[in-house]
From TrEMBL:
It is found in: Mitochondrion. The keyword Secreted does not apply. This is N(6)-L-threonylcarbamoyladenine synthase. InterPro entries: ATPase_NBD, Gcp-like_dom, KAE1/TsaD, TsaD. GO terms for biological process: tRNA threonylcarbamoyladenosine modification. Keywords: Acyltransferase, Metal-binding, Mitochondrion, Transferase, Transit peptide, tRNA processing. GO terms for cellular component: mitochondrion. The lineage of its organism: Eukaryota, Metazoa, Chordata, Craniata, Vertebrata. Pfam families: TsaD (PF00814). Belongs to the KAE1 / TsaD family. It comes from Oryzias sinensis (Chinese medaka). Its cofactor is a divalent metal cation. Gene3D superfamilies: 3.30.420.40. The keyword S-adenosyl-L-methionine does not apply.
Length: 411
């Protein structure tokens, strides 16, 4: 309880609206339940967590099957699907948790980065919800949420190195605090998940009996298990650029050229399954894995040279949708074993987008009292939002050459 004198002073100084805010902060201190809402891309997710990271209730509606049918994410379609499902998803998460809106300390919602039309639905719903129920609001950065998910599952102290790989992003950063990141490298063209999705689409993998409902990345991983990667030895991108940035567009051109050549050889047209899809999938997955591993290897060496990670038990976290790929995890393990780091990856259901990771980021912010807003405050979504302080030019200037590493990865 705040002493009466302090209360009166607040009332005098700030008037009624801010008194509401103090009473809300007090409520947050005692109960600490957060509702997380995610709509940045093509998943409508909601979850209620307590501050220990226990998931009290969750609901997730994936639009994947619709977008597979339309041949990629059409923003207006994604927006409409979010609009149709947000209320049900939030209601389900709350009902499963047995928590009423008045018991919540805050609502945490992804407001950046992502598809403008998708972000807008989650934000508009959340602002209406917090105003109706008079609860605190915590705007969330989607990539920060991916980076911190692991801390919900096990204690991982700062600082740690993080590789975030998804359908919209590829980046390497040092996480120094919940809102303190050093960006070592970022993508220059398309994200690895996007590349995998486009290759899968070019190969018409939805027509494959085992892949009809899988995302592109999942389909490539499944087929690659019985493929021979040596039949398609694609060049690893950016071999002579000694930084930690990523590029996948050139790799996709190489893959498309090989597909065209094979289609001509087999006398088939685009839209028909090639006999060698497993081998192409294996070659694609291997090259993506090696590119990610090499850039991460350089990031580790840079961190070591500059004392950015603890010498005792340094950790690499990998997260984002592509991090659910077991072959890519093994490639990264080759690097962490060579450099003495420990690789931590959330299980696949927490790597791909979900409401849980957003609620957890809200809990982390609530605990540290960072970025917590009163319900009446206006918030704008931001489709583009960098993560942390960009020191990628400094990394490039260091020009670190990698020692040879044998990338022997068993699928
Ligand atoms: O993090 P996420 O759910 O959404 C974004 O923020 O982008 O990531 C989705 C991406 C998709 O491109 C999907 O193909 C890829 O993650 N993905 C995978 C796997 N599962 C999902 N990529 C490779 N292997 C997988 N097993
Ligand atoms: Zn994501």
């Amino acid at each position: 309880m705040l002493p009466a004198k302090v209360k009166n002073l607040w009332r005098l100084l700030h008037g009624r609206r801010l008194m509401d805010f103090t009473s809300l902060t007090r409520k947050a201190y005692y109960s600490r339940l957060v509702l997380g809402i995610e709509t940045s891309c093509d998943d409508t997710g909601a979850a209620v967590l307590d501050e220990t990271g226990t998931i009290l209730g969750e609901s997730l509606y994936s639009q994947n099957e619709v977008h597979l049918r339309t041949g990629g994410i059409i923003p207006t379609v994604a927006q409409q699907l979010h609009r149709e499902s947000i209320e049900v998803v939030v209601h389900e998460a709350l009902e499963r948790s047995g928590v009423t809106p008045s018991q919540l300390s805050a609502v945490a919602t992804t407001v950046k980065p992502g598809l403008a039309l998708s972000l807008g639905i989650g934000l508009a719903f959340s602002q209406k919800f917090v105003r109706k129920h008079n609860i605190l609001f915590i705007p969330i950065h989607h990539m920060e949420a991916h980076a911190l998910t692991i801390r919900m599952l096990q204690p991982v102290p700062f600082p740690f190195l993080v590789l975030l790989v998804s359908g919209g992003h590829s980046l390497l950063a040092v996480a120094r605090g919940i809102d303190d990141f050093l960006l070592l490298g970022h993508m220059l063209d398309e994200a690895p998940g996007d590349t995998l999705d486009k290759v899968a689409r070019r190969l018409s993998l939805t027509k494959h009996p085992d892949c009809s409902t899988l995302s592109g990345g999942q389909a490539i991983e499944l087929l690659a298990r019985s493929g021979d990667r040596r039949k398609f030895p694609f060049r690893t991108p950016m071999g002579r650029i000694y930084d930690c940035c990523f590029s996948f567009a050139g790799l996709r051109s190489q893959i498309t050229m090989s597909i065209l050549k094979k289609e001509a050889e087999e006398g088939i047209e685009q839209g028909t399954l090639l006999s060698c899809v497993n081998d192409i999938a294996a070659g694609t997955q291997h090259t993506v894995a090696v590119h990610l591993a090499k850039r991460t290897h350089r990031a580790i060496l840079f961190c070591k040279e500059n004392g950015l990670l603890p010498s005792d038990n340094p950790i690499l976290v990998m997260s984002g949708g592509v991090a659910s790929n077991q072959y890519i995890c093994k490639a990264l393990t080759v690097i962490t074993e060579k450099t003495g780091l420990r690789l931590l990856c959330p299980p696949p259901r927490f790597c791909t987008d979900n409401g849980v990771m957003i609620a957890w980021n809200g809990i982390e912010r609530l605990k540290e009292g960072k970025g917590i807003l009163s319900p009446s405050e206006d918030v704008c979504y931001e489709p583009k939002a960098p993560l942390g302080v960009d020191i990628s030019a400094k990394v490039r200037a260091a020009g670190i050459r990698l020692p040879p590493v044998r990338m022997k990865i068993r699928s």
